[in-house]
Amino acid sequence: YQWRHTKETQLSKFNQTEIEAMLGSYTKVLFVRDPFHRLITTFLQGMGINPSFSSFVEDGLGSGIRNASVDWKPLVSLCLPCLVQYDYVVMFGFHRQELSHLLRRAGLSVDSLLPKFTDTQVLWTYRWLSEQMFSELSAQQKKKLSHFYRWDLSAFPFSSSYLSD
């Protein structure tokens, strides 16, 4: 197939036959993260641009889903989980267990390839940050964010997300 010798990385650049051949020949792994945690990370990485988390959220919601940056876009719009049959979905916070399983399935040595993960500490930190930042938002902003990410919240088990109703 021609796709084996091209530098293109976006599926949309290929025809349907090539897409089906590529997707059928790879093990597809999707890494997902609570959308509210993604927003917190994006805000913290761009500190200084917006004076508060609330204004950051307002600016992001104002741009709309079509004009949103990749950091803001719902995962469902980026990864198309309804169209691509992923072999594995790995949730943020469970990397150690999930990646160990994937490496064993691939016949690789788990101990030599996996870095040290601090999932428990990271999850605790995000729980605390989520609580603090969520309290900064108005009821209307919370409702808009929940609506903005409704498909992610439906597609993935983010049951403890602050955006879940």
UniProtKB/TrEMBL annotation:
Primary residence: Golgi
Pfam families: Sulfotransfer_2
InterPro entries named in the record: Carb_sulfotrans_8-10 (IPR018011), Sulfotransferase (IPR005331)
A single MF term (Gene Ontology): sulfotransferase activity
Protein name according to UniProt: Carbohydrate sulfotransferase
Localization per record: Golgi apparatus membrane
GO biological process, one term: carbohydrate biosynthetic process
Membrane topology: Single-pass type II membrane protein
